[in-house]
Every structure is written in C-alpha cells, then in structure tokens.
Amino acid sequence: MTIKETNTKIASRRKFLTAGAGVAAGAAAAVAMPQVSRAQTVTLKMQGAWGASDIFNEMAMEYVDRVQAMAGGRLKIDYLVSGAVVKAFQVQDAVHSGVLDAGHQVTAYWYGKHKAASLFGTGPVFGANAPQILSWILKGGGKDMYKELIQDILKLNLVGFFAMPMPTQPLGWFKKEIKSAKDLEGIKYRTVGLATDIMQGMGLSVAQLAGGEIIPAMERGVIDAFEYNNPTSDSRFGAQDVVKDYMMGSYHQAAEFFEIIFNKDVFGKLPKEHQAILEYSAEAASTANYATAMDNYSKDLQMLINEKGVKVHRTPKDVLEAQLKSWDTVLDKLNAEDAFFKKVVDSQREWSKRVAFYDLINAADYKLAYEHYFGKMGF
Fold this sequence. Notes:
Helices cover 50% and strands 13% of the residues. The protein is α/β, with parallel strands linked by helices. The strands form 3 sheets. A 5-stranded mixed β-sheet has the order 2-1-3-10-4, with helices on both faces. The chain has a 3-stranded mixed β-sheet with strand order 5-9-11, with no helix packed on it. Strands 7-6-8 form a 3-stranded parallel β-sheet, with helices on one face. Helix 4 packs across helix 5.
C-alpha cells in the first residue's frame, strides 16, 4: 500500500468515526432529554358543592393536586368552595352552561332532572358495598350508562368521572334514640336523592337541603332530624350542638361517590394527555380520599363520643328491614315508569349478585378479630 493510499484510508476512517460519534451523541441527547409536553398551559375553574369547612373540599384538593402534579404545571385547576360562583345544587347547571369549567359534587344533587341520577350514588343495596359499586361504574357498564344519561337522555354538555367510594352514611342525627321503624314516622328529616323516596315511604316528611342549610333549618324547626354524610363533615358544621343522638348504619345511602364533571366543549378542546390526566386522577384521588376519610372520620367519631357527649347507637335491624321494603316499593314503581332506570337497576343487581357473593363468602370476620383484641362492641 502506498503512502497516499494509507493517508486516504485513515482520512476515510476518521470521517466514519466522526460521523458515528455524531450519531451516538445525538442518540445520547435524545435519551438524556426527556420528551417534554408541548401542550399549552390551561387553567380550569372548578367549584365544589361543599361549604367552606367541609372535609370534602380537602378531598377535592387531593384530586386537584394530583392533576397538577401529573400535568407538570401545564394543566391547572382553580378550585372554589360552594357559593363562590353558584350554590351547591346549581353546580351542574353552571358547568353545563360554561359559567364553570368543572364541578365537584354528587349525583344526588341533580336527581330532580332524572331519578336514575341517584343510581350513580345513593342507589339500592343488593349486598354490594361502595367499592364494589364504584367497580361496577368502571368495569360493569356503569360508565357507559352514566354517559348515556347525561349526554343522550338529558342532553347535557358534560363529561364526568367518579372518585371516592364513600363509607356507609349514618342514618343520622335525632332528638332521641331510634329503637324501631315506628319511631321514625312523622319525623321531618333531611336527606337527598332517592333516599328521599325511601324515607318518605317509611312515613317521614323529607326536605332536600344543602349541607350549609341543615343547622339553620334545625334551629328554625323546619326539620327535626337529618343525615349529611360522616362524623367529620357533620361535626364541622355543628351537628353535635343541636342534637346528641347519632344513629350509625343505614341503607338509605350505603354507596355514594364524588362526581367530577367538566364542560364537554372545554374538555374536548384539551390535549388528549390532559383529558387522560383528568380522568385517571379521579382513580388516584379515590385512594387518597378514602385514606383521608378513614383517618378523620374515626378520630372525629371518638371526639364526638368522648368530648361532645354524643350518644352513638347502631341502627336497629327493624329499621334496616323497613328500608329494604321501602326500596322494593320504590324500585317497582320507578322500574315500571322508566326503561332506562330499569336498565341501570338490572345491571347493578346482576353485578351485585356475582360480586357481593364473592366478597361475602370470602371476607374475614373483622368484628370477631376486633373483639378478640379490644373487647365486645356492644352491638
């Protein structure tokens, strides 16, 4: 090989190595530099249906925080408490019309538009609990039926997601212990959703009121008794200051969830990644919300008993049986009147028969374990 040929070969090799190094450096840069979202920063205005002191606002913020963290600051939610823009029962209308971009509420607050709304929180009890009915929404066809209700039947400009399988809601606060279903007859009672039909069927006179209206209504004698949701929310608006008997356990609202809604036009204009974050943050918030509930509800129940003189009672079996009979009557009537209502009920019944069977036949006896370590509970 001549000197000229050698120099030519060396030059060619250097050129190849230089080009290869450039490609490698580019590849390394591609690995080192993460794909940054190019989505434009958007801020959504969301209002909750909850009074300023309600723990539900903290749970709404757990959803908001997860959305913003996963979006890397490119999707923000300006969260407002009830009354900042509209009243609690007006949240859905405000989101539909675009006055608000989003809302955090429960479906029972708009069941006046269609009674099937209450089936997505405060529906019948076929043996399945709240986590199992939330599973029905996600995996048993409930999501599609909810969409059919709000978009096809009611023609609402909304999309929505569900979070937080709420623990069974207490029967509520009374001026004396309820020892039988007969004790409930004639009582003026606050509740919402299909629970109004159930309790009316048991002889109560029912008023639907937002949380912030309950104590003033008690003080004016508009109602004699009420339920809201849980020991923390109830104690924060002062339930223990007007009555002292707290009845635990009920079938009137044994499986409810937060409904997180968005204006459909606003939601549709968001990048797909933002839409996914808004949807799946609801699932993430469910875990956080439930943990927050367990911590606070349990502590506040002990506070009510030990510091506020509240007498806590287990709702008697007689009342629970009467509630189931009332559910039967209400379902027979509404199933006959509305085919969509019946379709949703039938779907929940089929799901519950399979899913609750698995859970009930397999679940450990937690009360037995509790009493083994802490002594008899007294009910």
